[in-house]
Amino acid sequence: MTTKPNALIWLWLSTVVIALDQLSKWWAINALQPVGVPHPVIPGFLNWTLAFNRGAAFSFLADGSGWQRWFFVLLALVISGVLVVWLARTPRRDWRTGMPLALVVGGAVGNLIDRLHATQVTDFIHVYFRQWNYPVFNLADCGITVGAVLLVAFGMFAGKSAGSVR
User: Fold this and answer.
1) How confident is the model at residue 1 (pLDDT cuts 50, 70, 90)?
2) How large is the C-alpha radius of gyration of the chain?
3) φ/ψ (deg, to 5) at 6
4) How many CB atoms lie within 10 A of CB 70?
């Protein structure tokens, strides 16, 4: 019995996301002290600002008594596991599924490492414009967001063009 090549090869991208995320967080912790002080990168638009988040996106559940850490650890493990199984069942040639799933896995594991190691996620990218401020985030969050958006976008347009390979 032969098995068809699957999309698990895309886990190399997850590894790159995890490595870049952890290196950037190490840099942020060492270079951006004290916490909360903006370091302008593109004035009027982008700062490096060290922040820590015990919750999820937009500090959701950050004020919990500590149970949320384990909830988000479990959630990351389950989601990552499901996505790895999805990759294993996806044909290798299907990069429109493999790449986004790998980005999400890399981001989820990057933040999982923080929760397990430091009980909180390190954030440092702060995008803003005048009075509008986006919550501070990190490269793992970028992987999750870009992967999810690509998965939806590729799913919406799957089979729409005559020359698409699926």
Assistant:
1) low
2) 18
3) -105, 180
4) 11
Tokens standing for residue 134: 């986006």
Looking at this protein, which amino acid is placed at residue 108? A
Instruction: Tell me, yes or no, if 123 is annotated catalytic.
Output: yes
| Domain assignments of the chain as residue spans, ordered by start | 7-156
43-47: average pLDDT: 96
Return the sign of the alpha-carbon dihedral for residues 111, 134, 124, 70. Answer: negative
Say if CB 89 and CB 104 are below 8 A apart: no
Entry pTM: 0.88
pLDDT, tens digit, 9 for 90 and up, residues 26-38: 999 999 989 999 9
pLDDT recorded at residue 159: 66
The pLDDT of residue 54? 79
Query: CA-CA distance, 40 to 58, in Å (whole number)?
Result: 21
Select which of 21, 94, 114, 123 is catalytic: 123
**Strands, sheet with 121-129, edge to edge from the N-terminal-most edge strand:** 39-42, 46-53, 121-129, 132-133
d(CA 121, CA 127) in angstroms, rounded, equals: 18
Please tell me which residue, 55 or 118, carries the higher pLDDT value: 118
Find tokens 């015990």 and name the residue: 54
Q: Residue 2 CB: number of other CB atoms within 10 A?
A: 4
